[in-house]
Amino acid sequence: MVQVTLWGSLRDYTDGRNEVEVAGDNIYQILQNLGQAEPRLKPILEKGVTVSLDGQIYRQNLMQTVRPDSEVFILPKMAGG
Amino acid sequence: MTKTHVTTTINGDTVEYLCDPQETLLDVLRDRLGMTGSKEGCGTGDCGACTVTVDGEIVCSCLMLGAEAEGRTIGTIEGMAEGEMLHPLQRKFLDHAALQCGICTPGILVAARTLLERNPEPSETEVRYWLAGNLCRCTGYDKIVRAVMDAAEEMRGRNHAA
Amino acid sequence: MRYEAPTTLDDAVGLLAAEQGVAKVLAGGTDLLVAIRSGRLEPDLVVDLKRIEEMTTVTPEDGGFRVGAAVPSVRLGQHEGLVAMWPGVVEAAGLIGSTQVQSRATLAGNLCNASPAADSVPAMVAAGAKASIVGPNGRRDVPVEDVPAGPGKLSLEKGEIVASILLPGKPERTGDAYLRFIPRTEMDIAVVGVGAVVTLGTDGTIEAARIVLGAVGPRVVVADKAAQALVGTKGDKAAMEALSQAVSAACTPIDDKRGTREYRIQVAGTLAKRTVAIALERAKG
Amino acid sequence: MPLETDFPQGYEKRDFRVVGKRPVRPDGIDKVTGRARFGADTVAPGMLHGAILRSPHAHARIKSIDTAKAEALEGVKAVVTRDDFPIHDAVKEDRGLLDILVNCMAREKALYDGHAVAAVAATDKITARKALKLIEVEYEVLGHVIDEDLAMAPDAPILHDDLGYDYGKGKPSNVAGRTEIGHGDVDAGFAAADRVVERSFKTGAAHQGYIEPHACLANIGADGRGELWCCTQGHFMVRDTVTQLLGMDVSNLRVTASEIGGGFGGKTAVFIEPVAVALSRKAGKPVKIVMDRHEVFRATGPTASASLWVKVGAKADGTITAADALLKYQGGAFQGSPVDMGAMAAFACYNLENVRAVGYDIVTNRPKQAAYRAPGAPMAAFAVESVMTELADALGIDPIDFRLKNAARDHSKSSYGPTYNEIGLVETLEAAKATEHYNSPLGPNQGRGVACGFWFNFGGQTAVTLNVNLDGTAALSVGTPDIGGSRASMCAMAAEELGIDYDDIYAIIGDTASLGYNDVTDGSRATFASGLATIQAARQVKERMCARAARIWGIPEDAVKWEGGAAVPSGPNAGDHAPLSFRDIAKMAGETGGPIAGHHEISAEGAGPSFATHIVDAEIDRETGRIDVKRYTVVQDAGKAVHPAYVEGQFQGGAVQGIGWALNEEYIYSDKGVLENAGFLDYRVPVASDLPMIETVIVEKPNPGHPYGVRGVGETSIVPPMGAIANAVSAAAKVRATEIPMSPPRMLKLLRENESAAKAAE
Q1: What pLDDT is stored for residue D2 in this prediction?
Q2: Above 70 in pLDDT, residue D5?
Q3: What is the mean pLDDT of residues D346-373?
């Protein structure tokens, strides 16, 4: 299991929790399993989020390996200018 | 629609064209003569991207009718290099990275050339005020000003040597 | 739209008088072409004045200079006699637009665009300039301040053209100046403009003054009370303060995208002091 | 010699041969001679000219559109309205796409002054403009709202019936979303503080202000296949968006990116492209649409305007105990203001135990905002950096020392959550403190300000091809449009890897049919991501060249290595062979197995954030409120400056855009909601005479996620200026400026109010 931290406003969809334990070996699996565990998050995850894995920002590369001790943050979708 | 017949000189060549009386010189250059080096950034004389010379003075070609060019002598960016030989300003703009996107570059080069013809040793302030009608959104003008001053210095050296 | 470039003033007047639709005069074209391009103006006829000899020259007259309606600003700055006599007018004309626009923009065009914010107009009015108007009924001379009738409106009859502007000879010990306020250093329309002419007595006292304000009312404002505040003084601090207050009191500006009413009133007073200071220096020679 | 080319292997310290020098860019000659072809510079045989009719109302129901008279005008070949843009399935399922469609062509309502309502294609521009005047639109004018605070009021006119943060729970509203970022306990943090500063701020909407208006040329055949030429930051994005909006197969549209005359984020969206394609399809002829400047201001860009509140508390020794922010961003008529990124970036320069940033995304009757250089960050930084300096002043601590004390460092926890890798903020602060500028005296009525800035930087989907030519030169095809000289950096990196001359590589921007998908040039990613792919493609070329040498020599592939631009035998069993240079192998490519090329396709990640510290001296005219920027220094971490001249250019350009935003740029609306300054005359971007030279200091702290240590540099430079200038101006004016732009009327009012307050206090 990996500890995943959600950005603040997602607490509205998780009964006030912003840290959840999710299973998964890569970002894709983490997001899939998170959506299953917290169905109210699913539409937000599908609309697009950014994942920070060990301090690195991932907008797309969902196949990146996640280890049990990885630091995982779910952040709002980002774009540049 | 009655068109106006115009005979003029552009970059040293005699050019004839028919234009609609409403068309600007910029429209004529770009749409009728295929000289797209002059750019339209605003159409109101506020950005300078369409700068050309008319009888030696710089003008915004968007603020002049094509019909007004009759008998005049026009200079555009396309006439700035002599064959393969770039004008010192063109070279210095490349050396100093004085352009990023490059859309304002033709207008700035034409304007700067006229400055250096009038004033071979302009101060930084003189360069900045002369070019105040040429907007550049990429560079913050720093490298443009440096390139113009460096070109002026090189041209002064060359003139002394000659 | 038809384009005509007559070579005589008579032909130009004839073309304008005969046109049934909307006819416009083209001098520098820096305002006209923008209006046509935006669709605000759809003229049927445009008459270009730049091929008419009289319109393109600066000639000495009665101790002053007659400036043709199609003489671009850049030429004024190159005219040594004019620069020496009326530097304020030349500097005002030199503020119209960019270097590129300077090659085209004219005093007469700046006047006939009838914008209350025109830079050269307060300077010309302060200098006592007259417009020479030619039309189907002949020629008449009027003070330049009487040419605009309001924003975008002229007092000209159909077929009439401003052919030239006469800047009169300058009295002795007289100096002029023009300053405007803009947010940037260049390329803006005046938020406030102040033209000033002062004449000194032999003892350095101000004998006569003219203070003219731009962009603070529907037309330029000739601020007589402000001028009176200077006359009889040497332009000391108290006189300047009185000038400033009289100028602010003469302003009737509007709020718009270029400045608030309150701001224009405040800055006009400040700008008047700065303008008069320059004019005084010039008057002292 | 197996090469791991799928993912970057991380930073490798090395001595550079080409990278770090300042060669002339490959597209340079074209750009100084007028030969370069931008969006409006191309034609097609039989081409028509398109023009767009726009709403004169800020908010109105469109009751009817009658195009009969326009269609009857001689020379008019096609007219399109909302009826020509049916909502296809792909659009129905995606609110973002639907918003783009509605923005490109209004449906039931016009949502802002300038919203497109119809378009024509005619044989020439004059006829097209005339035809627009013949289209009769019946509007029912509705109440409108322009300001973000007013749009949140309970009685505000509502733009969308199906939008609202609390939609589903209550009634619709103009608040499209709420975001919250942070950690710790801010209340406890403030309780522990010795000094607390809190303030409210406002920022105006600034336009990207690129000099090239949007332009495109669409040419769709009767078989439904076609081409589109346009100026854009991302032609693959244009292809995918346009085809989805119009129900076309993606493969039926080939998009070519022209040279692009500036973008700054504003060309990461489509506006006229779907309209040109629809007109071309309907007319059966090529259609060119070129916006005029007025349209650019009314109907594209700008970024969000914002209403902000920031509160920061610190101990007497300068240690920050808590930081809190409330950000309200209006992003125009559709949801999606960059408030999320504003909230994340707000406190990203600081190492904070207790931090919170709450943001609201608000819709108003303004054009749909588009990304603008570090979207969302500059306004938040303006407020935060203002408060940081005020707090430092209150504690009697030098503003750089105060920032150093609280700065985010290597491996500290960011304010938005994740742990930073190696970052260069402290290095920029230390370098700034050591500049001659920071230690120079000030003149009368002058003040000095500093501010820090942060931007995430992104990677993203990237594909490049590197083709080796028989004469030993190479052609590099990249898919990220070059806005500021990135092709020069790509050539330098390819030359560096291959060991050949910079001049032997020529880079172009490939079209959508010639390369794999590329994300837009955004997020400061081009030099990072396309550069990363270029390095990997070059490594693949080297690998293949080594294989060819092995074949020529008759030895195993792993007995050949690449060294000094040549294949050389390596190892005990390789034998003695004279090195084969890049040129030698290129010449023999046909005989040794055919053309040699390197490809790389990747979702690049690991861009690594970039930090900056800016110093500015400003002078105020106390009688007019006018501010003059006297001196300006940018200190920024570039990781590794591939082409230092263009890195400096990014620093300078961003700083000057920030100066414009800080001093004069803003959207000004009439009481009817009509944009009043839709032109360069009254939307006042800085001109050359407004500015001093912009001094630069490039800090190079290698990005661990890139083999050369490169970080994105394009966006960070616009983040600190407004805060830095506000701090300088506030010092000069002796009163805190809280609204930008700090235009002369606003500043004079502030000075006068402050004088009155001081007098009253006496």
Answers
A1: 34
A2: no
A3: 98
For residue D1, the model assigns a pLDDT of: 33
Cis peptide before B122 (omega within 30 of 0): no
pLDDT at C239: 98
Do residues B93 and B75 both lie within one domain?
no
The ipTM (two decimal places) reads 0.97
Instruction: Report the mean per-residue pLDDT for chain A.
Output: 92
Structure-model confidence comparison of residues D593 and B161, the more confident one: D593
Chain C residues lying within 8 Å of D687, measured CB to CB = 184-187
Asked whether residue B94 falls in the same domain as residue B43, the answer is no
User: Do B70 and B96 have their domain in common?
Assistant: no
* Cα distance between residue C69 and residue C58, in whole Å: 10
Phi, psi (rounded to 5 degrees) for C138: 100, -160
Q: Do C186 and D623 touch (CB under 8 A)?
A: no
pLDDT digits (tens, 9 = 90+) for D44-90: 999 999 999 999 999 999 999 999 999 999 999 999 999 999 999 88
Residue B64: CATH number of its domain: 3.10.20.30
Instruction: With beta carbons less than 8 A apart as the criterion, state whether C123 and C89 touch.
Output: yes
User: How many separate domains does chain B show?
Assistant: 2
C-alpha C283/C-alpha C271 separation (Å) is 18
Instruction: Kindly state the percentage of chain D with pLDDT values over 90.
Output: 94
**Is D129's CB within 8 Å of C267's CB?**
no
C173–B contact, CB cutoff 8 A: no
**Quick one: pLDDT band at residue D132, thresholds 50, 70, 90?**
very high
pLDDT of residue B2: 86
Are B95 and B73 within one domain? no
Structural domains present in chain A: 2-76 (3.10.20.30)
Q: What share of chain A is helix, strand, coil (3-state, %, to 5)?
A: 30, 30, 40
Q: Are residues B121 and B63 in the same domain?
A: no
Identify the domain containing residue B59 by its residue range: 4-79
Residue of C nearest to D686 (CA): C184
- Do B103 and B151 lie in one domain? The reply is yes
B 33-72 residues inside an 8 A Cβ radius of D: 35-44, 46-47, 49
Tell me the chain D residues in contact with residue B102 when contact means C-beta distances shorter than 8 Å: 27, 31-32, 36, 259, 261
Domains recognised in chain D with CATH numbers: 28-36+459-604 (3.30.365.10), 48-143+208-299 (3.90.1170.50)
On chain B, the residues whose CB falls within 8 A of the CB of D210 are 101, 103, 137
What is the pLDDT, as a whole number, of residue D165? 80
pLDDT value, residue C223: 98
Residues B71 and B28 in one domain: yes
On whether any CB of chain C is under 8 Å from the CB of B130, the answer is yes
Inform me whether the pLDDT recorded for D229 exceeds 80. Answer: yes
Using a CB–CB cutoff of 8 Å, tell me whether B134 touches chain D: yes
**Of D133, D677, D690, which has the smallest distance from its Cβ to C185's Cβ?**
D690
Residue D139 to residue B118: CA distance in whole angstroms: 56
Distance, in Å, from the CA atom of D458 to the CA atom of B33, rounded to the nearest integer, reads 43
DSSP per residue, D54-110: E-SSSSEEEEEEE-HHHHHSTTEEEEE-GGGS---HHHHT-HHHHHHHHHHS--SEE
- Are the Cβ atoms of D32 and B145 closer than 8 angstroms? no
Cα nearest neighbour of D357 on chain A: A8
Domains of chain C from N-terminus onward: 51-167 (3.30.465.10), 174-284 (3.30.390.50)
> How would you classify residue A24: left for phi > 0, otherwise alpha for psi between -120 and 50, otherwise beta?
left
